[in-house]
Structure formats: structure tokens, C-alpha cells
Amino acid sequence: MDEGAADAEEIVKGVDPALYLALTVVALLAIFVYIQLRKKRKNADVDDFFSNLDGDKFNLKLPAAVDEYYEVKSKCEDEGWEPGQAIEGGQPSPHHRMLAQALMKRCMADIPIVSHIQRESAGMNKLYSQSMCSVKQWKSYQAAEAMVSAEVEEVRAEADEIEPGWSQVSSGTNRRMRTETSLSFCAPSNLPPLCALKAIWRQAMQYHNMLKQKEAQAKAQQEAQQRAVAEKKRVDDEKKAAEQARYNAIKKKVDEEKARIANAEKAAQELMKQEEREKESKKAFSSNSGGGMKKGFLG
Questions:
Q1: Rounded Cα distance, 117 and 147, in Å
Q2: Is 0.85 surpassed by the pTM of this model?
Q3: Is 197:204 a contact under the CB 8 Å cutoff?
Q4: Could you tell me the CA-to-CA distances from 237 to 54, 87, 126, 267 in Å, in that order?
């Protein structure tokens, strides 16, 4: 036993202290890596939370009307129209009219994304200043804002190409003159007149709201029609149900009356049969009784 203890003590003394140091370093390194991974995962969860908080709110795309406008412009250029070409004789050419209509259609299609960025601008700047939104979300907002701003500037440039100076017209006689000229631009498609650029977005917004109002009215009218149809169906169903109930009640009474008559007839037949049986029984009894008395008398 003393020899075993001595051997154990010798083994312990033989362990290199550097091994303990290495094990300690490895343990500390593992703990550090674990803490860093946990912190990174937590930050990723926070970023995902803020990123998913608003979903695809700023995943905006330009409307199809933008490409349609450039298709119209390319067609006009192929037919000889040149950017900045002045209106001759105060009468817009077919190319001016087509481009004015296409640009107004483009403006109206841009209204939703322009309004969206305007609504979100103050809130996003406030969130970013207070570090309450992720970097990814902020960059997404900045990209959307830059795209919309570029689109607004592009519309300004296109308006000046259609008719030079439109972007500087604001009010007064010039605006009235341009309105008179532009009325014929948009008449074929019932679009509002494309006069001053400063007014184009307001006009596009007015027409956009007009279309939304018409859509809301059409939707309300459709819902009213659907309610009327549903109400008529309900009334018809109730009427049919009432008629069916009356029919069932009359049929029940008729069936009950038929059953009562049938039962009465059956009872009468049974009564008649019973009376006949009683008569036959009495007749047989009388016959039997008379024969017995006579035989006894003679005997």
C-alpha cells in the first residue's frame, strides 16, 4: 500500500505545470469564443427583428408607366420629333400630345411611391437618429428615397424636353397660356392638362385622388349591389321558407284528416263486423237453445 501511494505521488510530481497553463488557456479561449458567438447571434436576431419589423416597406419599384413613357418617346423620336422642339402656331403636334399624355400617366403612377417616401421620411430619420432601426433598414430607406428623388428630377427634365420652360412656369399669364395649350394635349385620354411642372405633381395628385374616389365609389356601389342581392336572396329564401311552411302545415292537416277518415272507416268496418259476429253468435245460441228444450220436452 505504501508503494502505491509513493507511485501516485511520483506521478503527480512528474506532471508539467505548463500543461495546467495550457488547459487553462484553452478553457478561457473556449469561453471567449462562446461569448462572442452568443453576442453575434443576439445582434443578428436584433437586426432581423428591425429588418422584419416593416417587412418590404422600402422595397419599391418604379411603375410600368415609366418604361411606357420611354417607349412612346422612342417612337416619337423615330418619327422625327426632337427633344425641346417648340410648339408651332400654338397647336400641339401629335407627338407633343402623346408625350404629354404619357408623362402625366407616369406622374400619376409615381404618386403612390412619392407619397409613401414623404410619409416615412420624418419617422425614419427620427428612428435612425435614436439608433432604433437597423443599418440594413436605413440603407433600404435611403435607396428608395434616392430612387424616388431621381424619378422626380427625371420628370422635370422630361417636361422641359417636351416643352422648354415648363419647369420654370409657376403662375400668372404664362400658366394660363400653357394651360390653354395643354388642354388639347390630354383631351383624347381625358387626362388633366400638363401645364407647369410645379403644378404637374399637384395635378397628378388631384387626378390620382379623383381616380381613387371613383374606385371607392365603384367599390361602394358594388358592395351596395351585393348587399341588395344578398338582401333580396334573403327575402326570397324567407318567402320560400314561409310558403313551404304553409304548404307543410296544410299538407299535415290534409294527411291528418285523411288518416282520421281512414281510421273512422276502419273503426266502422270493425264495428259492423263485430255486430255481425254478435248476430251470428246470438242466432247460433238461439238455435242451440231451442233444439235442446224440444228434445227434453219430448223425452
A1: 10
A2: no
A3: no
A4: 47, 66, 58, 43
